[in-house]
Amino acid sequence: MHKKPHLPEKVCAVCNRPFAWRKKWAKDWDNVRYCSERCRRARSKAE
Predict the structure, then answer these.
(1) Cross-referenced InterPro entries, in alphabetical order (predicted)?
(2) How far, in Å, CA of 3 to CA of 17, rounded?
(3) What would the mean pLDDT of 5-10 be, rounded to a whole number?
(4) DSSP string of the chain, one letter each residue
(5) CA-to-CA distance for 7 and 28, rounded, in angstroms?
(6) pLDDT tens-digit readout, 9-46
């Protein structure tokens, strides 16, 4: 059984893996596009 209710999910713009909402993104969820800092940095190199 899951302890938490179903959280919203997004797909990372870099690695294409799904990731769930996290508390630290509560205020900025609409702008979150990457599952991790590593992917966020990788994106700037790829462009």
Answers:
(1) UCP037205
(2) 22
(3) 89
(4) --SSPPPPEEE-TTT--EEE--GGGTTTGGG---SSHHHHHHHHHH-
(5) 15
(6) 999 999 999 999 999 999 999 999 999 999 999 987 65
